[in-house]
Structure prediction request, 166 residues.
Amino acid sequence: MLISTGIPTKEDLGRVMPPVQRLAKGPVAMAECFQKIPCNPCAASCPVNAIHIGEDINECPTIDFDLCTGCGTCLTKCPGLAIFIIDESRGDTTALVRLPFEYLPLPEAGQYAMCLDRAGKELGWFKVARVIRGNSRNLTHTICVEVPRELSMEVRNIREGSYRNG
Ligand code: SF4
Ligand code: SF4
Prediction:
């Protein structure tokens, strides 16, 4: 399914998902990178060397979730927009999902954005907690959305321009 649709299966995701205990401790990266391609900016940019690709640059990255601080550097460097930062440590029924975004217009913090799953299916209007604009060195923006915790492994995009206040 991944090869024909580009959408990972539950089994694919199970191989790269941080453990539940780690997710509850604070923000952590999840690399949804399943194709063997010559690419390594994620590993090269990680300040704590938490991402490993190995000697063959075609291998898919693996993340040491205990080392990862959830800083998000790798997310902004990934040309495949394949890295997400998940935070389930808020102590309530919500989670934060930080995702890469390369469209305009950007939403504003406090607005609600239509959130989508990996296949583009609408999951609901959820609050934009933070917007980090790209800059001249890195054009990738990042959007942080506050979602119901049960959707932290589902929300992976927002629909560009579908923003509303409240
Ligand atoms: S979020 Fe930060 S610490 Fe974690 S893997 Fe990415 S760059 Fe490394
Ligand atoms: S930078 Fe992105 S596309 Fe490249 S290996 Fe890392 S996760 Fe995969």
